Amino acid sequence: MNPMVLVDFSVSENNDLQAWFVVNDGVMGGRSASTFDLNADGNGLFKGTVSLENSGGFASVHYRFDPLEIGNAKTLVLYLKGDGKRYQARIYANTSDRYSYIAYFETSGEWQTIEIPLASMYPSFRGRKLDQPNFAATRIEEIALLIGNKKAESFQLEMKKILMK
After folding, report:
1. What is the DSSP string of the chain?
2. What is the rounded distance in angstroms from the CA atom of residue 35 to the CA atom of residue 59?
3. What is the pTM of this model?
4. Strand partners of residue 49
5. Are 121 and 135 in contact (CB under 8 A)?
6. What percent of the chain is modeled with pLDDT above 90?
7. Per-residue pLDDT, 46
């Protein structure tokens, strides 16, 4: 199967960030702050500060799109450069679901190719694993990246591409 490109910031039509949005812990009273923009190199840049104040503790960036048939794709692939911190990848099969499928990954501070088997992504709602099967859908409507390591910290995650294969 040829890789299915979800996002490629080197392609000019992907440089419209209107389908991207930030969700921080402010939705529940927290004080974390983050942004998502294109940097000088044309890559997506998710950065900010996670605060534990007021029961906070996470920041996330989401990319929502029309339902996309992923066929027999088995792997989510992220081409990114992190800051040595742990992040979470999330997939939403349906945006109307209140839960997502998640997997954690570590960044090294260098450019990396992170490959996450879709079947390893488990359903979670508000940080709690649900008693349901792991991801097995044939379509998705949203992906997200989240940082929430139970500590106050600044972060920066630079992205070149996201694809399924």
Report:
1. ---EEEEETTSGGGG-GGGEEEEEGGGGT---EEEEEE-TTS-EEEEEEE--GGG---EEEEEEEEEEE-TT--EEEEEEE--S-EEEEEEES-TTSS-EEEEEEE--SSEEEEEEEGGG-EEEETTEE-SSPPP--SEEEEEEEEE--SS-EEEEEEEEEEEE-
2. 9
3. 0.95
4. 33, 154
5. yes
6. 90
7. 98
pLDDT in tens, 67-121: 999 999 999 999 999 999 999 999 999 999 999 999 999 999 999 999 999 999 9
**One-letter identity of residue 120:** S
Handedness of CA 154, 47, 164, 133 (dihedral sign): positive
Q: How far apart are CA 99 and CA 94, in angstroms?
A: 9
Residues in the chain: 165
Structure tokens at 146: 């989240």
